[in-house]
Amino acid sequence: MTDSGIHVAAGIHTALSGISGGLCFQAASFPAPKSCAEFQRVSIFFVLTCGHGVVVGAIRYAESKDGKKTEKHHEIDFVVNMGMNRVYIQSALSLSDDEKRQQEITPLRKSGDFFRKIVVTGGNSKPHLDEQGIQYTGVIPFLLDKDSMK
Question: Is the pTM of this model over 0.90?
Fold first, then answer.
């Protein structure tokens, strides 16, 4: 998110603190996002209205190729902190091909811990886990389930 997006999100969080979790269900009545940026705004709005603290995460790791070591850097869209627990969320309108899927799950796989990892995509796909324990869910079930991050 841009710097201004972070300020907007912080303002939403301040304005909505103290509102019950019932607002989470109202988030589903937003118009369907048409761009990746809009999709991320809807996702962050939902997380914030449910009373969670959110930051953008970064994963750094070393990778060797042809005898050369390089440092890689990947961003995690949202890191939701809930006391001693944490949830990593990647948001993508679509995982149209394997390259896009790898782009989204690489930072989750490289996190090096066992906290919950979710990829939220556009649409209504039901939550399911892959062989690495990463959950995939459509934005509609994600928004409608008040326990989607527990």
Answer: no
